[in-house]
Amino acid sequence: MSERTSDALVSPEWLKEHLDQFGNDEPDYRLVEADIDYDESYAEGHIPNAIGFRWGTHLQDSIQRDILSKEDFAEIMGEAGITEDSTVVLYGDESNQWAAYTYWQFKYYGHEDVHLLDGGRAYWESEDYPMTTEKPEFSEREYNVRGPFDGIRIYREGVEDAMELGVPLVDVRSAEEYRGEKIAPEGSPETAQRAGHIPGAENITWKENLSEDGRFKSREELEELYEERGIGNDSEVVTYCRIGERSSITWFSLHELLGYDDVRNYDGSWTEWGNLIRSPVEVETDDPASRASKG
Predict the structure, then answer these.
(1) How far apart are CA 90 and CA 53, in angstroms?
(2) Pairing mode of beta strands 114-117, 169-171
(3) Residue 28 maps to which CATH number?
(4) Choosing from 15, 241, 258, 283, which is the catalytic residue?
(5) What SS3 state is found at 22?
(6) Do 142 and 13 fall within a single domain?
(7) Is 45 a catalytic residue?
(8) Do residue 142 and residue 206 come from a single domain?
(9) Phi and psi, residue 263, nearest 5°
(10) Which among 20, 129, 155, 221 would be 20 to 30 A from 166, CA to CA?
(11) The last residue of a domain, from among 133, 148, 163
(12) pTM of the predicted model, to two decimals?
C-alpha cells in the first residue's frame, strides 16, 4: 500500500516522517489517540505528540447515550488545541475501532482535514516505531463547528424506512451476534435485551475490511468483498453494530476508501434496536427456546 492510500488514510511511514510537525504549539497539525481502555493504552505509552481521547468522556454524552453535542464537541476540541482548520490524524487500539468512530464524528461536524492512521496503534507498535509516556501540552484554541452534516448518520426512524424500501443494511458484528447466539462480544457489557439482527441485514463483519496486519485491504479487495455480497454504490447503504464503533470501520471503507456516495452509520445500533419493544428482529438458530426468548 502506498504512503497515503487515499486522502482519508495515512501510512505509518508518512506519520513517522512528519511527527515533529504534530508537536508544534501552533494548531496546524494534531495527532489524537482514541481509546476505550485509556488507562491501559494511551496512559501506558502512545505515539509522540499524540493527544489522548477517552471514548466515554471525550467522544460521548454518557447521560444521553449519544455523540457529543455541537457545543461540547467544539469545547473538547478547543481544549485539546485543535481548530476547525487543523490537519488531524487519528489512531487507536482495537484495530482503530474508536479512531474510526472519532473520524466519523469529526466528519459529522464538518471537519475536512482529518485522516486515519492505517493499522492503528497495534501496527505502529509491531513495527517498533517510537512510543512515549510524555503527554503533550498545547494552548487552548477556539473551534468553530461547521456541521452537523446528517447525510452520514441515520436514526432509528430512518432505518425503519430503509427496511421498507429494501435499502442494503450491513451488520458488521460477529456471526454469533448476527445469528442471535450472543448479544455482545466477549468481555463487553450486554447493552440490549434481545439478540439477533435487523431483518434483511447482510452480515459482513468489520474485520473483513482489514488485512491480517490490521491495515485496510486494497481498494480492489474491498470492492470485490462488497460487490460479491450485493453492496454497491447504486443506492444508500446503512451500517450498524452494537454501539456504532465497529460499524464506523465499515462506513470508512465504503464512504472514504471506495467513495460510495450515500453511506450512513446507525450509531444507535443494536443497543437501541435490541431494546425496542416490538421492533422486528431476526435470529438464525435451531434452538426453539432461544428463538422464543428473542422474539
Answers:
(1) 10
(2) unpaired
(3) 3.40.250.10
(4) 241
(5) helix
(6) yes
(7) no
(8) no
(9) -120, 125
(10) 221
(11) 148
(12) 0.93
